[in-house]
Amino acid sequence: MTRTIQRRDFLLGSAALAGAAATNAFTCVEIASAAPIAVPTVDKLSIRVLVDSSFDLFFRPKQINGVSITPAARGGDFRKSLHNEWGLSLWLESEGGGNQRTLMLDYGYTPDVLLNNMALIGVDPAKLNALIVSHGHYDHFGGLNGFLDKFRDRLPADLKLYAGGEDNFCHRVTPTPTQGQFADFGTLDRRQLAAQKVTTVLCETPTVIADHAFTTGKITRRSGERVLPNTLVEFGIKDGLGCNVGHYLPAEMEGKIVPDEHIHEHATCFNVRDLGLVVISSCGHVGIVNSVKQAQEVSGVQKVHAVVGGFHLGPAPRNYLTQVVSEIKALNPDVVVPMHCSGLNFAQEANAQMEGKVVVTTTGSRLTFGL
User: Fold this and answer.
1) Which residues of the chain have pLDDT under 50?
2) Any transmembrane segments, and where (predicted)?
3) Are 352 and 109 in contact (CB under 8 A)?
4) What distance separates the 2 farthest-apart alpha carbons in the chain?
5) CB contact at 8 A, 281 and 290
6) CA neighbor of 131 nearest in space, from 65, 69, 213, 187
7) Residue 287 — φ and ψ, nearest 5°?
8) pTM above 0.85, yes or no
9) How far apart are CA 94 and CA 25, in angstroms?
């Protein structure tokens, strides 16, 4: 359930919004209701890996603990191949209550790779019910505008993009070798979304999406996990671009560039009948254990069937990695499916601690959960 933000109410959040509102940048914004959600149950879920950093031509089908994984079909044109790049994009198809739903979670780094892979894998944008973005890193939203440019006329007229919250729209930068200097890492631009007639839904609280999925909302930091070094974030709005810091941080944070805590990163989840939760963490900067525990609290479902996606443990120190993997093991998932930024070090440690539960994927592969 969502409610539309009235233009004058949104303006009250920060004086910096005045210029943005004048260009109607935020006329297509909703905020998720704070009311408790009724978590839906689906009978089946499949995840297609549209973009990840590796493609294995020799990948073979396998089944682990009730989860099946199959490679992408080989195309008829030898001159065309799936492409890989740093980033992630997932195509989510679910069945439940006699209905089917299709969602798209994140959009990779570039539209060229995303569109190439979508064509070769054979997914149909006309089937999409909604879009989701996990957090404000370019390698997760970089392909979005190109995707909309190509397919907007095939998507629902009332298309919605579910974002974790206002923080997702902040400007990100990365440090350079020159002290005090930063390199641009992009900003998710709501003006472009509004121009494409896409309504942004801010999911700072748990939100049901298309009657099948749900988001965690803002994730409580309750474990010993910490945000490992990544980007820096700039709070505020300039020329209509950026985030309205006024409604979730003290006023003195306006204009600051600080280490990125990904305040509104969220996970996308499904409750699969008789199996339990499938928790999809695109990057897991706020902690994969935190993300799963938030999904359990929000849903009231304790059984964890699968933990999927990026866990941002590639840069983790050895002792920290060992501890986090032990905490994942304690959650007792049936399978763990590392992608993107999880790291080879994570896969090795997870195999050591949870032998027989780690599922390796490749670009183009399909994971299936449920009957």
Assistant:
1) 1-26
2) none
3) no
4) 58
5) no
6) 213
7) 110, 125
8) yes
9) 33
